[in-house]
Amino acid sequence: MNKVIILNEETIKELLDIKNVIKVVEQAYTLKNSDQADLFPIITHIFEPGKADMDIKSGHLKGNANIFGLKLVSWFGENIKKNLPDVIGTIMIFDGKTGIPLGILSGEHITCMRTGSAGAVGSKYLARKDSETLLMVGAGHQAFFQIAAALTVLNQIKKVMVYDPIDYKFAVDFCNKAKLRLKNEILSKYKDDKILAKKYDIDFVATGDIEKSTGEADIIITATPSYKPLIKEGWVKKGTHFTCIGADMEGKQEIDENIFSMARIFVDDLEQASHVGETEIPLKKGVIKKEDIAGEIGEVILGTKPGRLSDDEITIFDSTGIAHQDLLTATYTIKIAQEKGLGTIVKL
Ligand SMILES: NC(=O)c1ccc[n+]([C@@H]2O[C@H](COP(=O)([O-])OP(=O)(O)OC[C@H]3O[C@@H](n4cnc5c(N)ncnc54)[C@H](O)[C@@H]3O)[C@@H](O)[C@H]2O)c1
User: Fold this and answer.
1) To which H or E segment does residue 244 belong?
2) Is the separation of the CB atoms in 270 and 293 below 8 Å?
3) Is ligand 1 within 6 A of the CB of residue 138?
4) 175-180: long-range contacts (C-beta < 8 A, 24 or more apart)?
5) In what helix (H) or strand (E) does residue 265 lie, and over which residues does it extend?
6) Closest ligand 1 atom to the C-alpha of 230?
7) Distance between CA atoms of residues 187 and 160, nearest Å
8) What is the pLDDT along the chain (348 residues), one digit of tens a residue?
9) Dihedral sign, CA of 247, 257, 308, 221?
10) Backbone angles phi, psi at 85, to 5 degrees
């Protein structure tokens, strides 16, 4: 009989802190680009169009981690009416030496933390070091974790502007709650970290004018499910860095494809980004060719490809979300749960 650890949302929230997840995600990217990780094709199934679907992202991490596994995310839109969550993620981790299951974890908080961390890694390696103004496009679940992780790795941010494409009031509400959430959900893990406390103690401003805010921003993070560009080419100033999160399915698009023709482009995974990421539409419309993509973020971290080449350059990180982020974060969560004696052990 195999012993498997089960970790629920509550325990995962208690265990994970943003600084360590950023390190884990950075490691996942470097493993990928040092031939230490395989990514398997995504499986997608639509049960009923517009009502229910699911996808499975999976992969194998070799080296010290030596695990394989998957995250299954299902979306059942009508669950809301039944007072149930509409998006449900479940992660399964297996031992790479024996194939034995090691853990089953709830995927929601891990997804938020690893996605925020991915965005932050993009900004850390590609944004100008003197970036002071961040524009967050989208004010939903991911937006909070994007901002929290970005502020953690960046040192000069003075203002965060938040834009909600659906309703300005959502952005106002988000900004009103942002500092308290940062304090309670992120900073509470680092009681005496005055540097981090200072980084989080900045201005959060809701904006209804995305054109003006785009022109002001040094870094723009997009995290909406949009299928049409929200940011036009002519609005973007020199030296801007984009981290694109929202596009993770065929057809989704958040920024004007023409921005790609004037940018240095990095992705998390070339294949995935070309099919389901922000890079998909510019490639399909012929604005760029695959050769125009400068590389994968793991190569920049490893130093095998240069990131930003000048202060004037526009950079893009297309972060589609790869299985390795989930698998390594889940493995890290299992390790600390075992150290602290948390979680439920089940004999399968
Ligand atoms: N790349 C990754 O690793 C990754 C991980 C998780 C989520 N995502 C994607 O990020 C996006 C945002 O996820 P979330 O969990 O924050 O969603 P959410 O529903 O919590 O928030 C979505 C935000 O976008 C706005 N919005 C809703 N519909 C819109 C539309 N049609 N056009 C423009 N804006 C719209 C909402 O008002 C809100 O501000 C989704 O597309 C999701 O699939 C990507």
Assistant:
1) strand 241-244
2) yes
3) yes
4) 175/204, 175/205, 175/206, 178/144, 178/147, 178/204, 179/204
5) strand 263-267
6) 33
7) 18
8) 789 999 999 999 999 999 999 999 999 999 999 999 999 999 999 999 989 999 999 999 998 889 999 999 999 999 999 999 999 999 999 999 999 999 999 999 999 999 999 999 999 999 999 999 999 999 999 999 999 999 999 999 999 999 999 999 999 999 999 999 999 999 999 988 999 999 999 999 999 999 999 999 999 999 999 999 999 999 999 999 999 999 998 999 999 999 999 999 999 999 999 999 999 999 999 999 999 999 999 999 999 999 999 999 999 999 999 999 999 999 999 999 999 999 999 998
9) negative
10) -65, 145
Point out which residues pair with 135 in neighbouring strands.
Answer: 161, 220
Using alpha carbons, select from 1, 246, 270, 241 the residue that is nearest to residue 123: 241
Alpha helices in the chain (DSSP H): 9-15, 18-32, 108-126, 141-153, 168-181, 194-200, 210-216, 258-261, 270-276, 280-284, 297-302, 323-340
Residue 346 pLDDT: 96
224 CB under 6 A from ligand 1? yes
| C-alpha 254 to ligand 1 mean position (Å) | 10
List the 314-318 sheet strands across, edge first.
203-206, 159-163, 133-137, 219-222, 241-244, 314-318, 263-267, 293-296
Q: For residue 203, which of 272, 133, 148, 138 has the smallest C-alpha distance?
A: 133
Strand, coil or helix: what is 96? coil
Contact assessment for residue 41 and residue 48, using Cβ atoms and an 8 Å cutoff: no
Atom 18 of ligand 1: nearest residue by CA position: 140
pLDDT in tens, 260-295: 999 999 999 999 999 999 999 999 999 999 999 999
Copy the structure tokens of residue 343. Answer: 């979680």
Beta-carbon count within 10 A of 9 CB? 13
Question: What is Dmax (Cα atoms) for the chain?
Answer: 62
Q: Is 116 in the pocket of ligand 1 (CB under 6 A)?
A: no
